[in-house]
Amino acid sequence: MNEKANQDDSTSGRRRPRGRAAVAIGAVVLALSTTLAACGPTSGGSSSKSRTSHGKGKGTAKTKSPRHGRDGSDGSRPSSRGTLEAGVVKGRVTDEAGRPLRGAKVVVQSQVYDDTDLVLVTDGQGSYRAEMPKASGTFAATATITRTRQGTSYTFDLAPDTADPFTRQHGAVRDFTWRTSGRQGSGERWYGGSVTYNVRLGDAPADKRLSPENVHLTLTPVGPLIDGSTGGTIARREPRFTGQGWAVVDVPVGRYRITAEYAAPGGKPRPLLVRSTGTEAFSDEVTADFKQDESNRQILSVETRP
Q: Dihedral of the CA atoms 9, 14, 15, 16 (nearest 10)?
């Protein structure tokens, strides 16, 4: 009933010009048509062809001019891997090397109604396809992938080729990529994990205490990263203050050998001792793995001291 009411409201909202206003508008249109005819066809093709593509008849809905979103009248976007099908959502999930990913979870969710979610799983070709719920309004698609390493399960958000909403009327193709690093959208969230650190000072006097922002970590991968790729050493990356404390952010998840040093502005770097948080002994280096918190954030936590 609500959908019908919305359609009726939108139809009744169109009002035709009447009386003198209609005559005035007709005169303007006639003058404009005469001017355009005198100018002749444009370099992009004749105006009659343009009108024909938007004329009455079957397929008119598919040729409407965009109203919102950059990819179609409702934000729907053709993909290099498929074409749009009305009432269907489909796509493909790959890693950064373009390899298909089996077992990724794709959630198609109405932005208007509850209890209309679709939960899909990719096949061996990294593909998914399903009929969309018969509901009006717009939908959005998100995707995750879960992998296990060293007995720990990690769930990663996947990067969409577009975040534009779409409708059942047009259908959608939404592809996703598993990125091990990079910013998610415009916020302070990353595809990589965070290596957090605390500075343990014990009974050190105030003039001997260290400023956490001047602590620098060197992270050397031990074996392949979580996606099977080969990682590179991360050295002296500028730390950030996060909700978990000081951290090196956007680190691809894997096992790392970690060393630390202190470098005050204008001072000479000097090594620090390091340990995994919650363990006993400090040493010159530590090898550790990431953990995952309840918000699916991957965190590796260490402590340092002089």
A: -150
pLDDT digits (tens, 9 = 90+) for 135-183: 889 999 999 999 999 889 999 999 999 999 999 999 999 999 999 999 9
Residues 6+ apart with CB under 8 A from 37: none
List, for the chain, all residue ranges whose pLDDT scores fall below the cut of 70: 1-81, 202-208
Cα(34)–Cα(37) distance, rounded to whole angstroms? Answer: 5
H or E element, residue 47? helix 47-53
The tokens for 302 are: 């260490």
Q: How far is residue 72's CA from residue 62's CA, in Å, rounded to a whole number?
A: 9
Report the C-alpha gap between 270 and 247 in whole angstroms: 19
**C-alpha span between 45 and 190 (Å, rounded):** 46
CA distance 305 to 279: 14
Q: How far are the Cα atoms of 154, 180, 292 from residue 150, in angstroms, in the given order? A: 11, 18, 13
Residue 11 zone, left/alpha/beta (φ > 0; ψ -120 to 50; rest): alpha
- Asked if residues 228 and 101 have their Cβ atoms less than 8 Å apart, the reply is no
Distance CA 195, CA 203 (A): 26
What is the rounded CA–CA span in Å between residue 248 and residue 264?
A: 17
Residues in the chain: 306
Terminal Cα distance for the chain, rounded? 70
For 188, residues 6+ apart whose C-beta sits below 8 A from its C-beta are: 242
Write out pLDDT tens, residues 93-109. Answer: 999 999 999 999 999 99
Q: Residue 177: which residues within 8 A CB-CB, separation 6 or more? A: 93, 94, 95, 96, 158, 159, 161
